[in-house]
Amino acid sequence: HRTLTISLSLSPSIQSILALNPRVQTHAALLSTATKKMEKKHWKRNAEKGCEFSVFTVNNFTLHCMWGNSSTVLFSYRRLKCADAPCQKSYPTNLNIKAFISSIASKNYYGAARTILSDNPLGLTCGMVCPTSDLCVGGCNLYASKEGPINIGGLQQFATEVFKQMGVPQIQNPDLPPPHQIPESYHTKIALIGCGPASISCASFLARLGYDDITVFEKQRFIGGLRSVINLTHGSYSEFSSCI
Question: Start and end of every Dihydroprymidine dehydrogenase domain (predicted)?
Fold first, then answer.
């Protein structure tokens, strides 16, 4: 299953504008689960609301994001531009949350999605089903405010859904050498067992590095891993299976 290189059918002016957006990360951030759990516990703002663990969650969206452009931008204006944002400390992949929310505030939905998908290839799925009150939203500095914390999951879902509707073609990483100059080692067959979030993310980062013969094996009839076979906090698998 070799990766196909597709040329952008966009005008040079549009391509130059898109190039101004944040660069896509080619390497995943190495963060231990133990470290992230300690950071999440340290910055948690909603433990007294019954959100110490992910058994119970509050203030989460259960359906597809129905916000329009104006309401989404309005919600993004509530950001505090935190210098050391605690929500990022509680986000498992250390996503630059304040950067993508700032992009939404300026109506740069492409830039927001680029930031999200750069660190988290499953950004749309996570925006739909992630128990945010136990993670990033649980550390929001606005949690004690009258309006409540920023709905990070809702904003993330909106940005990635808008990006999906844009239909921007996928291309090979422009920083890589031409296909005929890529070392032979990058054509080595790579197998990933189980088509869950870990394998999908791993395949995404390998492709960004230039590896072009990656196969993901899955014994089930569907993909998605554990989230596809357990009861979801946020509705059924059918609601987001097409987004994985």
Answer: 77-167
